[in-house]
């Protein structure tokens, strides 16, 4: 349903187009980026993605060839752990299983060639679609950082979720 290719700066304009405003940017990436998502931030992100510290992918639809999503894993090789983040599906492709298929492929890389034993992530606790996506892949909530930051006039709470290689290998997730 989707294929992955390495993210490069050439795909950066897709990210900028898929994120429609500052609150959506925040919901997607927290404090990682600031609005507007400009060329300099994207260049720094692409450069980091070309190091062993991070892998980032563009998901594309083999049927039509168009890009449909983005995801990234920050790698802690010493701990054999990673942090899944920047999970984003093109607005017109949402709600069709693209996020689940893309994330399953990313986890295949994380637990495969990257050799990770554990993948973590953080998601705002009001992002029900993303939480459902991650739970479908087998992630469980370890704890909630309640009212951890204020932005856009409200407090935000972050669910911290994780998935181990053992749980992934057991294949209980529905997203693949
Ligand atoms: C979150 C996001 C990546 C999900 O991608 P998607 O392609 O729309 O999701 P999918 O179609 O694969 O659906 C994933 C799951 O969410 C469920 N879902 C879909 N829409 C939903 C909704 N509005 N509310 C709750 N669950 C929903 C699906 O039913 C599916 O669950 P299931 O497998 O149990 O049926 C996408 O909506 C997005 O890019 N959002 C903006 C950026 C963002 O919030 N990123 C996450 C940062 S942590």
Automatic annotation (TrEMBL):
InterPro entries: Acyl_CoA_acyltransferase, GNAT_dom. The keyword ATP-binding does not apply. Keywords: Transferase. The keyword rRNA processing does not apply. Residues 2-166 form the N-acetyltransferase domain. Gene3D superfamilies: 3.40.630.30. It comes from the Bacteria. One of its GO terms (molecular function) is acyltransferase activity, transferring groups other than amino-acyl groups. Pfam families: Acetyltransf_1. This is Protein N-acetyltransferase, RimJ/RimL family. It comes from Actinacidiphila paucisporea.
